[in-house]
Amino acid sequence: MEVTTAALPSMDEPAPLDPAAIADFQRDGHVCIDALASATEVAAYRPHIDRAAEQLRYDRRPLAERETYGRAFIQSMNLWRRDAAVAHFTLSRRFARVAAELMGVNGVRLYHDQALYKEPGGGFTPWHQDQTYWPLATTHTITMWMPLVDIPPQVGSMRFVSGSQRFGDLGMAGIGDDSQAYFEALIKARGFAVHTHGALRAGDATFHAGWTVHGAAGNPSTTLRSVMTVIYFADRTRIATPANDAQRADLKVWLADLAPGALAEGSKNPLLWRRD
After folding, report:
1. CB 171, CB 210: distance < 8 Å
2. Alpha-carbon span 99 to 208, nearest angstrom
3. Which of 227, 209, 230 is nearest to 78 (CA)?
4. How far apart are CA 215 and CA 219, in angstroms?
5. 8-state DSSP, 50
6. Which tens digit of pLDDT belongs to each residue from 123-161?
7. Which residue among 45, 62, 160, 233 is least packed, with the fewest CB closer than 10 Å?
8. What single-letter DSSP state applies at residue 121?
């Protein structure tokens, strides 16, 4: 089905951001912004995101045949490159401006988007740190996590380990049973506080830093938990030398295989918002 972006809400006008939200993010490494997108806006974009997410999902095995990571969610990446309507959502200046203001940077570029749909009966999302995958020479990275449906209390939104972003790489790459066990032990040993923003409405959004440890509970409901995410990094960031195989793969896929030390300004990483 063809659609022109003129038929979709613009998503570019700024959203007011409480200074307290900025302080909370910089202290805790996560924050929730209520109603960042309206119900009308989400309703306009959701069919396009749903369709692209289904077309681009890479794991089509039955839920019971998947490992822990595969049971956590249906994952579809780089939707914005495949669907013009989804691109209008992913490249939203409103979302990008909030990301930049939370981090306190002058501008942000896109790393990539991904849909994360947790099926009815889907398993938990293991504890992990996103930035173990990213060969970016900065701590100014952030992910927006926006539900496209109301999330009830029994499902809930993500769980965050408050303040964990201040310690950088905590020593466990990847996501799965090993990362779950490792971070469960670390949380207990260090007395970290775990926080969840709980039930959310469609269009609410959580933001978390790249080094913030996070995970999510399973989905015991009969409803698909539909979530769209967008990952941003600070403009003028340089590419780091990859430290592991995952970062080498990311360098090729998301950063146009540019050389370490180069500015991360490839064709897949457009500038989405800048203060000037």
Report:
1. no
2. 9
3. 230
4. 13
5. H
6. 999 999 999 999 999 999 999 999 999 999 999 999 999
7. 62
8. T
The answer to whether 76 and 58 are in contact (CB under 8 A) is yes
Contact (CB, 8 A) for 116 and 123: no
Q: Which two tokens stand for residue 34?
A: 């209520």
C-beta separation of 214 from 127 below 8 A? yes
Q: Find out whether 145 and 158 touch, Cβ atoms under 8 Å.
A: yes
Per the CB < 8 A criterion, the answer to whether 48 and 9 are in contact is no
Cβ neighbors of 244 (< 8 A, separation 6 or more) are: 132, 173
Beta bridge partners of 98: none
Contact indicator for 110, 267 with CB cutoff of 8 Å: no
Quote the tokens at residue 178: 């090993």
37 closest CA partner among 52, 15, 17, 22: 15
CA dihedral 232, 94, 201, 23 (to 10 degrees): 70
pLDDT tens digit string along 168-205?
A: 999 999 999 999 999 999 999 999 999 999 999 999 99
